[in-house]
Every structure is written in C-alpha cells, then in structure tokens.
Amino acid sequence: xxxxxxxxxxxxxxxxxxxxxxxxxxxxxxxxxxxxxxxxxxxxxxxxxxxxxxxxxxxxxxxxxxxxxxxxxxxxxxxxxxxxxxxxxxxxxxxxxxxxxxxxxxxxxxxxxxxxxxxxxxxxxxxxxxxxxxxxxxxxxxxxxxxxxxxxxxxxxxxxxxxxxxxxxxxxxxxxxxxxxxxxxxxxxxxxxxxxxxxxxxxxxxxxxxxxxxxxxxxxxxxxxxxxxxxxxxxxxxxxxxxxxxxxxxxxxxxxxxxxxxxxxxxxxxxxxxxxxxxxxxxxxxxxxxxxxxxxxxxxxxxxx
Length: 305
Hints:
Keywords: DNA-binding, Transcription, Transcription regulation. By secondary structure, the chain is of the alpha/beta class. The chain has ten helices and twelve strands.
C-alpha cells in the first residue's frame, strides 16, 4: 500500500521538476523529501527517479505513478471539501423511496428544483409500498420515504422514523361509465355489494384500507385484480370489470371511460415523509421542503379538493 504522503512527494517533484523546488512547495527539507521518495521506490519496486546531469528526472514508471498520485490527491481534496461542507451543504447521495403516485406526482418537480439549486446532490429513487420500503429505511438502505396512510387504516410505524404529513387528499370510488351507479354525485360502499374490486396487492396500505372500508359497511371484499399501479386498476375499471378506491393524486391520467364518485361517508389519504429520527441531514431537510413546495403548488393549481 502506497503512502499518501510519499505519493504527494512524487507528485510535487513531477510538478516542480526538482527536489529542491518540490521540498520548498511542501515546506519540508530536501533531505526529508529524498527519504520519502526512496521509501516510495522500495514500495513500488521500481526506479522512480534517475540522475540527469546535476539534477534528477522522473523515469517512465515514475510518470505513471505520478499520474495516479495526481488523480488520487485530487479525489482526496474533493472528499475533504465535501466533508467540510456536510454541516451546511446539500450534497452527496440522497436515497429516496415512495409509493408510485407520490413519486410520479410530487418527486419530479421537487427533484428538478432541488438539483438545480444543489448540483452536487445525487438523488436516486425506488418506488414501492410502505410494507416493502420501511425495512429498507430502518436498515439504513434508504434515507427518506414518501408513504401513504389512510384515515380508516393509519399506517403502522415501528419506533424510529420521524414523520411529517405532506399531503391530505380525498379518496374517490372509480367506476366505469357503464356502471349503473356511475352518474350518482356520491355513493355508499354498501351500494356496491355485487361489484368486484381492483386494488394494490394484499398487505399494502391501499388493500387493507379497502378491506376495512368494505367490512365497515357489512361487505366481504371481492378483490379480483391485485395490481400495483392505480393506472392499471383504472384500465380494469374502464371496462367495467371492477371498481377501485382512488386518491385524488391518482385520478390523473385516467382512461376516458372512468367516472369518479364521492364516497359517503368520506375517506381520505395522507402522504407522509418518513426518515430515521436523529438523521435529518441537509439533503433530507432540503428534499422534504422541496416536496412540501411541490404539494403546495399542486394545491394552488386546483389539483386537490
């Protein structure tokens, strides 16, 4: 393993052309610099310098190693600068996870603004359901989640994550325009006794919320289509194969043959940011603020009831 201090000595000789000038630049004595270079030659197992008149010159092996040294020293300098900036700067990796509707609706605009303001930030995004993403947050694999919580079935979180509610929105019943109840201004789930359902897979927040909402109205759920994406569920709804519970955020885009009817009694969904408590670093804080701004802009545009 090469010593960084000795590689720095070789890089200085390559840059300044002599031991004397390199020693002066490094603020050490020429003899001290020569000792470092001699030890580096033993580590490399090759001659790095050779006599040239009354001075020295770098051998081919020395130039090769000096090139690597320059790149390594540049990288170390960048690492030192990044660490010095960590207390205040928004930079480095930001590993995000979220439910598909929040990822699609909120994150693109938020990340566009965030990376424009902080070009050294490197976000990555994984979509999925809270049941799959929460273990990755708790293990440290992800930094921040956008998860959903339904009023009739609040998301359960183990001890550890901090939470902030970003969006509160109405949930609608999606029906085909061919469904006999599609023209009603509002509907009670009990009126859909003979209607099959499309929902996210069992174990997810939307599925469990649907099951509890139907059972609260005396119905046993008939979920025939377990589909992760709301848009795919709506494709089944359009063909009058099923109904679906759809939050406001997922109403767009929708197939033209789908109608959205208000629930009686009403049901709402929240999108929450979750991150490990005590680990609210600058990238996490900045991202939460950016998503809040994206959600507020969406409300001002009339996309939420």
